[in-house]
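Z., the sequence and structure:
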Amino acid sequence: MKYLLVEDNPELAKAICSRMGLDGHQVDHADKISDAVAFAQTGEYDLILLDIMLPDGDGRSFLKQHRAEKNDTPVIVLTARSQVSDRISMLDLGADDYVTKPFDHAELQARCRAVLRRNTGTAQPTTRLGDVEFDPVGGYLNVKGTTINLRNRELRLLELLMNAKGQVFSKQKLVDRLFSYDDDVSENAVEVYVGRLRKHLEGSSVHIRTLRGLGYRLDHEG
C-alpha cells in the first residue's frame, strides 16, 4: 500500500515511516499542508495519515478540501485532542477514523488495516479467488495447497491487483502506487515484480494479463 503521512513532528514522522516501511508500505511524508496538497494532487494513495496542528494551518482544512474535491481516499486523523466534540467534528468532516496521541504503533497499524478493509469492502483479510488464497496481513499466497511467502513489493502488487480485479493498471500507475516519491525506479521494475507473481501463480486459475500499450489486469478463469 502507498500512504501519505502529514505530520510535522520529525521524530514521530520518522518512526511511523520506519514502522510502515517494515510492513512493506511506501510512505510519502509532508510536514505542512501546502506540501500535502501537492502530494495529493500529483500522486495516488491508498490511505492518508493526517495530523491536525501543522505549521501552516489546521489539518481539518486539508480534510475539508480533500472531501470537497470528491476524493474518497480514506483518512485517519492523528490528534492530541481527546474531547469527544473534537473527534465528532473530524468524523463529520470526512475522516474515516482517528488515533489519539500518544498512541502505540501497533494500534495505528491495526486501525490502518481495518480502514483499508472497510474501504475495499473486504470484511476479512484473506481473499480467495478460485484455487488461490491471498493473505496480505500474513504475507503469503496459497496456490492449490502450496503456500508461498511473498516479498514486500510482490505482496503489495498482488494486493493492489486483487482489490481491483478486472481493472487495467498502466506501468506508470503501478510505479506510483508501489514506490515512494523519493525512490529512483523505472517501469522495468514493475515488469520484474509482475514476472515473479506470474511464476507464483503458474498452474492456477488466476492470471496477470498484459494488454499491449495499456498495462496489466488480473483475470480469473472459472
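The chain has a mean pLDDT of 87. The chain has two domains: 2-120, 140-220.

Let me know what you think.
H.
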